[in-house]
Amino acid sequence: VNELERTGKIDRAVEFIPNEKAMLERKLSGAGLTAPTIAVLLCYSKMIVKEQLLATNVPEDAYLKTLLIHYFPKPLQERFSQEMQHHKLKREIIATKLSNILVNEMGFAFAFRMEDETGAPISAIARAYMIARRVLDIDKVWQELEAIEQSISGEQQADIIMMYVRLLRRVTRWFLRNQRLKLNIGKTIKLYTPGVVELKKVIPAIFSEGNHAHYDGYLKQYLDLGITAALAHELAMSHFLFSALDIVDVAYKLDISVTDVAKVYFSIGEFLDLPWIRSQVIAHTTENNWESLSREALRDDLDLQQRQLTAAIINLDKNQQDYMTCFRKWSEHHAHLIERWRRILTDLRSASVLNYTMFFVAIRELLDLTQTTMQLSEKE
Hints:
Blueprint: H1 2-6, H2 12-15, H3 20-29, H4 35-54, H5 65-69, H6 74-84, H7 90-106, H8 110-118, H9 122-135, H10 138-147, H11 154-178, H12 185-202, H13 209-223, H14 229-238, H15 244-254, H16 258-272, H17 274-283, H18 289-315, H19 323-333, H20 335-350, H21 356-379
């Protein structure tokens, strides 16, 4: 709201949007925004996103032509799909559809927060989001959730949707951080989708005891809601897809199977208890924008280090087909640094209060282990 007001896009008084003091009071009381305020912000967000998209070549992206076709009734789609590509308002229709998808699915603040966190323009954010949707096959997920909406409560459905919103946000952010200069929607989807599909097929079979127990817990949670076994598996498995792009990226760069990389990746996470510290960072409350940026930076650092560790461990013996043997040799060779890392985790667990300074120091220690492993793999 402050940004919209600063740039002259919105007038609080005209739109009956609460002032800063009232906003803070509602936040402290847990009241949140009122429905009319949310509706106003949704409208303004869509207008601004559309305006910025029209100032770029995003509406010309070949992948987005389906948005134009689906704008019209089915009989017209079947008869005039070719003619539609020459519609005088083609760009405006595509930009409208794209802004609606982005804001309706992710909320009015998503694009602007992502812009603030990554420095990426709205055009890149829109491309990355459409890639994330397709790579995760999110349309199928929405259809399956709509089919069961009468059999579960609104709160339960909202929890599931929010899990996918977080996943979409994370995957979108990954593409912006790692593929910003290569964000051709069609080509990127073609590159990463097969790897994600392969990863889905091997979860939870590749898991060791700890991760399998977490998967079983999620599965039981969804089965207890009366959800079919197939959908319950899909939902439970999706909790482990936050790292899917890191795994697929390592597999492509090292030219080995996604399954082999995933085994090492998840084993490293469980061995070093990275899911625990990641969960603490995510759960830690933020009081201002700087703390929000700190939290995202910490998560990015953790993800990067786990990805680098995975690649470095596999590279310790390029001729070794049993990559888990590489993992065991690595753990023995770096026993001292690993023990130091575990002492740090013990200290964090015993602390009465955690803060971002403690997280930064801890992850800096993990960096020593990561860099040492990378240096050793380069020698090999």
